[in-house]
Amino acid sequence: MERQTLAPSSSSSSSSSPPTEDAWVNTYQRLLPQLQSLTLPHKSIIPISISRVNQVDAARLDIEMSAMLKEQLVKVFSLMKPGLLFQYEPELDAFLEFLIWRFSIWVDKPTPGNALMNLRYRDERAIEARGKVRTGLEGPGLTVAQKIWYCVATVGGQYIWSRLQSFSAFRRWGDSEQRSLARRAWFFIQRIEGFYKAASLSNLLIFLYTGRYRSLIERALQARLVYASPNMNRAVSFEYMNRQLVWNEFSEMLLLLLPLLNSSSIKNFLRPFSKDKSSSSAGDEALCPICQANPTIPFLALPCQHRYCYYCLQTRCSASPSFRCSRCSEPVIAMQRHGG
């Protein structure tokens, strides 16, 4: 009986067919929603930190770009009345800031500094609402309202504040009577400025800790700087900076050494190598070799008999007892008034 019962079971196991090839795929697709419901609530957001150096450098580059544009614009009005452009300097700064905003942020493009540092603005509110897993690369740009408020704060706010400060300083509100309205307005302006500086300092400390929102305007609008391209590295060429540093050091060295050099001895040393022989003409003989002007009180250097101004010759002889004539390099042992 046992053999009879085991025979059908062995025959049924041998006759059963293997599962189809798409059985695993169908099973995975059927269980995928359940797996996602179990894993997503426990999945934490992966923060991607934006380099603080990039953000600070971008702000500095934007300032330098505004300064370059302002310098070029000032050259256009260089032939006008002196001091005319100084009266409208706040308007000029606001105009340049508006141009940069119009052709960068308003058209969803990064500012020149942000473009060089591979950064762009992102609406952080949309990212928080979506609840994405990755932060720092994806996300939409600023909305129209954010762009307009950014222009109002950066362009209009800075212009109004600079004009208010210059107007209050010109009207001397701080020197008014103790209980006058102008003095109260002056103290109110000073307190607002102090509060703004304290808030900016707090925002800077928070920015250094978190790496988000480098200014109060960005924090108020929730406009965060993120990377524009994930595959672009921060590569800044320091070749121009090196050349600038070398030239600055060289110019400072010249400013230090030139006052210590004797100009007359250098001229006498370089005179044989000069191609212009007009200095030995009769017209130049009548001029003072130091100031290159007609001597008002002419004096002669003895024993070479060359004419000098009294002040030029006296100061050189007093400064250096071994003074040599600038024309013939002979030692000057005395001086005599011309015609005396």
Automatic annotation (TrEMBL):
Name of this protein: RING-type E3 ubiquitin transferase (cysteine targeting)
Single GO biological process annotation from the record: protein transport
Broadest EC class assigned to this enzyme: transferase
Entry similarity comment: Belongs to the pex2/pex10/pex12 family.
Pathway: Protein modification; protein ubiquitination
UniProt cross-references to PANTHER family, sorted A to Z: PEROXISOME BIOGENESIS FACTOR 2 (PTHR48178)
PROSITE patterns attached to this UniProt entry: ZF_RING_1, ZF_RING_2
Xref: SUPFAM superfamilies: RING/U-box (SSF57850)
Regions crossing the membrane: none
Record field: compositional bias (Low complexity): 8-19
The RING-type domain, residue ranges: 288-329
Entries under InterPro entries matching the protein: PEX2/10, Pex_N, RING-HC_PEX2, Znf_C3HC4_RING-type, Znf_RING, Znf_RING/FYVE/PHD, Znf_RING_CS
Top-level taxon: Eukaryota
Coiled-coil segments on the chain, per record: none
Gene3D superfamilies: Zinc/RING finger domain, C3HC4 (zinc finger)
Source organism: Ilex paraguariensis
Subcellular location: Peroxisome membrane
Keywords: Membrane, Metal-binding, Peroxisome, Protein transport, Transferase, Transmembrane, Transmembrane helix, Transport, Ubl conjugation pathway, Zinc, Zinc-finger
GO MF term set: ubiquitin protein ligase activity; zinc ion binding
EC number per UniProt: 2.3.2.36
Membrane topology of the entry: Multi-pass membrane protein
Region Disordered: start-end pairs: 1-21
